[in-house]
Amino acid sequence: LSPQEHGLDFQRLLDASAYKESYRQDMIRWGEEKRRADPGFFCRAAVEGVAQPVWVVSDTRRLSDVEWFRDVYGAAVRTVRVTAAEETRRRRNWVFVAGVDDAESECGLDQGVTFDWVVTNDGDELALDEQLETLLRWLRDQL
């Protein structure tokens, strides 16, 4: 929603480019303002007007997001955390930026959530496939 409201190139905001980094703190500030006014703002926007037998909601950032989904959908909610070692992230051109990468928008779920699945994505395709197969089996069973 922020890119649309501010005339930004959405596709360029999806990568780790300098373009994204130049707007990142502004986007975080904008998101925080929206969340302070209404903690469920982004969650409702994600599901509004659509019904699916299974939802995969990627990139929740805060405990309030997880709590919103649990409040609305109850026991149907399952959580997945995708992790990668800092060394792997650096190989993927990630560079720590103080005030951004240590903000709630980046690490708000580092504590306080017990995840149903933890998927490690450190570049081992076979290991990743095995982990995802477990998750996919569960998803298929829900349909």
TrEMBL record:
Pathway: Isoprenoid biosynthesis; isopentenyl diphosphate biosynthesis via mevalonate pathway; isopentenyl diphosphate from (R)-mevalonate: step 2/3
Keyword Membrane: no
Gene3D superfamilies recorded: P-loop containing nucleotide triphosphate hydrolases (3.40.50.300)
Protein name, UniProt field: Phosphomevalonate kinase
InterPro entries documented for this protein: P-loop_NTPase, Pmev_kin_anim
Cellular compartment(s): Cytoplasm, Cytosol
Keyword Endoplasmic reticulum included in the entry's annotation: no
Keywords linked to the UniProt accession: ATP-binding, Cholesterol biosynthesis, Cholesterol metabolism, Cytoplasm, Kinase, Lipid biosynthesis, Lipid metabolism, Nucleotide-binding, Steroid biosynthesis, Steroid metabolism, Sterol biosynthesis, Sterol metabolism, Transferase
Any one GO MF annotation of this record: phosphomevalonate kinase activity
Principal EC category: transferase
UniProt EC number: 2.7.4.2
One annotated Gene Ontology cellular component of this protein: cytosol
GO biological process, alphabetically ordered: cholesterol biosynthetic process; isopentenyl diphosphate biosynthetic process, mevalonate pathway
